[in-house]
TrEMBL record:
GO molecular function, one term: galactoside O-acetyltransferase activity
Sequence ranges assigned to domain Maltose/galactoside acetyltransferase in this UniProt record: 17-70
Keyword Repeat found: yes
EC number(s) stated in the UniProt entry for this protein: 2.3.1.-
InterPro entries: Hexapep, Hexapep_transf_CS, LacA-like, Mac_dom, Trimer_LpxA-like_sf
Alphabetical UniProt keywords: Acyltransferase, Repeat, Transferase
The keyword Manganese is assigned to this record: no
The family this protein is said to belong to: Belongs to the transferase hexapeptide repeat family.
Pfam families (alphabetical): Hexapep, Mac
The organism of origin for this protein: Aeromonas caviae
Protein name: Acetyltransferase
Amino acid sequence: MTDATTVQRPAVRGPEWQKMVAGAPYDAGDPELRAAREQCRALLGELNRERTDAPGWDERLTRLLGGRAERCFITPPFFCDYGANIFVGENFYANFNCTILDVCEVHIGDNVLLAPGVQIYTATHPVAVAPRIKGVEFGKPVRIGNNVWIGGSVVICPGVTIGDNSVIGAGSVVTRDIPAGVVAVGNPCRVLRPMTAEELAPGAPG
């Protein structure tokens, strides 16, 4: 068995991977996708059972994600499907029990904070019964802007974009896009109010 820390991603992905990341219907049982998920799980197992200050931990996190800037930290346990489709910016932090289903790309900007239990889903299934029971799946990308704070146990659904500087209240289920510079809460998540000029000012007190 190949050690997860030495596995290299293929330079060219197969047709089901290409369909998956493009948001087209795909076969999740495809051998390449199954192997990629198993590789991801093996690497997650190492990250989640070791101390975050253990030698090589940070390097494993870098290898797991599709892209990361400096000062990126995730408190274990962390869970994802592939890792390769997650791209995070500068000064990113995710607290305990973050789950990202990254069948499509997830782009997270700079200075983003995820509270415990945040779940980000790009994966979805057909509403129609026949294709759903045959295992057809597809996805929609998620984008989170800069300086966003996501509260505890928030669920972000497929295809959602959250604008810069916004705050999503704890327990919210985000089913639609959230504009920049607002506080939004609820299930389904709705804009509660715009943020004030003082709240949006760089260097303003918390």
